[in-house]
Amino acid sequence: MSRLDAFIARLHAQKALLEYVAARIADVPGPVLELGLGNGRTFDHLREILPGREIFVFDRAVSAHPASIPDGEHMIVGDIRETLAYCAPRVGSPAAFIHCDLGTGDPTSDLARSDWLAPLIHARTASGGYVATGVKLDMPDFETLPMPPGLEASRYSILRKR
Ligand SMILES: C[S@@+](CC[C@H](N)C(=O)[O-])C[C@H]1O[C@@H](n2cnc3c(N)ncnc32)[C@H](O)[C@@H]1O
């Protein structure tokens, strides 16, 4: 698969998964955490499909399209290894949904990242809350949900905290 095809497949999977989870969290209290603002595309989609849900966005720097930058209270700047660990006073309750879009596509660096990321995501997810992740996360109290039809081959997975 060319990198262009892989990029298109990733965007397709992201859109479908964000909508899949958004349709299931009505009864789960808590904010949404977007890990990786990047260009702001998935943040922009999340705020469109989840109006009224508080969304906090994490990235080490703000380099998004100007129309897709959260307000200062909801943009948490810094290394996620530190900011996710210490965000509770600002973010409040554990999250109903965490979208983790930090993958680099490099297996070694993604594996190293998943090692410190999994316990942080575990701690910040509400009971019954969802995680959609492009980085494999080993989290014992979570069940891995079947992927929506057509997305089985995607690098993404959907997890739900028991
Ligand atoms: C693939 S991009 C996110 C794309 C974005 N979701 C979008 O739709 O445009 C990944 C982002 O994660 C950020 N990132 C990766 N590792 C990070 C870390 N340890 N701490 C903070 N930000 C990190 C990068 O700066 C980059 O902006």
TrEMBL record:
GO molecular function: methyltransferase activity
UniProt keywords, alphabetically: Methyltransferase, Transferase
Organism name: Pseudoxanthobacter soli DSM 19599
Entry's Gene Ontology BP terms: methylation
Protein name according to UniProt: S-adenosyl-L-methionine methyltransferase
InterPro entries in the cross-refs: Methyltransf_put (IPR025690), SAM-dependent_MTases_sf (IPR029063)
